[in-house]
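Reading a protein record of the kind used here takes only a little practice. Each token is a code from a learned vocabulary of local backbone shapes. With that in mind, consider the following protein and its fold in token form:
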Amino acid sequence: MTRPTRALVIKATSGAERPEAANQALTVAAAAVASGAEVSLWLTGEASWFAVPGRAAQFELAHAAPLDELLAVVLEGGQVTVCTQCAVRRSLEVEDLLPGVRIAGAPVFVEEVLAPDAQALVY
């Protein structure tokens, strides 16, 4: 397989309240990292909690890869971001998050999705 030429920006908007959507976002992000793509995963809304140590490990979905393992793949080979407003609403600071996770806002997201050859997906 050749290395993908487009960056992939994935926005996960669901947490435990929509487990299949949450798992699908992280599954696609991890698969893209494994394929060699440049990946930026944005955790927004209830998905923001997955960036807190131990929270992704608590997530369970039958017949799905463990969320904490998928997130580890993305953290190792891509960028993970929690949206600024989502972090503030949950009283989360960067110190509360897994190592390597950043907090950034809409201007950074817009810059990423409008980059030449970027592909954005929202789950």
Remarks:
- Strands lie at 7-12, 39-43, 79-83, 101-104, 118-122.
- DSSP finds five helices and five strands in the chain.
